[in-house]
């Protein structure tokens, strides 16, 4: 699906949607670098508690954003997808068949 088609389907203006693969790859790389920096700061024992909480929150936001960029690149992983519904796991399900 082209970005123009995506814009029409989602109701967004085309200029908001058009990003090249190179731009998205650069953005993913930039976010990964930021995440490494945040993780380094969190591991520093001299980081205050308040700063650590703020950095941890920012890290979660960056990870979510990175997942979105990877999804746009077609590199989405199954990190958030459930493996199977919980009702289908375990011996209870096997007994009921």
Quick description:
The protein is mainly α and 97 residues long. It has helices at 3-10, 14-17, 21-43, 49-73, 91-95.
Write the layout of secondary structure elements.
Blueprint: H1 3-10, H2 14-17, H3 21-43, H4 49-73, H5 91-95
Helix pairs in contact: 3-4
What does this protein structure show overall?
By secondary structure, this protein is mainly alpha-helical. It has a domain at 20-76. The protein is 67% helix and 0% strand. It is built from five helices and no strands. The longest helix is centred in the middle third of the chain and has 25 residues, at 49-73. The radius of gyration is 20 Å and the shape is elongated. The N and C termini lie far apart (42 Å). Mean pLDDT is 76; it is low at 1-10.
Quick tags:
97 residues; mainly alpha; 5 helices
User: Could you tell me the number of beta strands?
Assistant: 0
Distance between the termini: 42 Å
> What share of the residues lie within helices?
55-70%
Question: Which sequence of SSEs, written as H and E, runs from N to C?
Answer: HHHHH
Rg to the nearest angstrom? 20 Å
Could you report the average pLDDT, rounded to the nearest whole number?
Answer: 76
Model regions low in confidence, pLDDT < 50 over at least 5 residues: 1-10
Shape: elongated
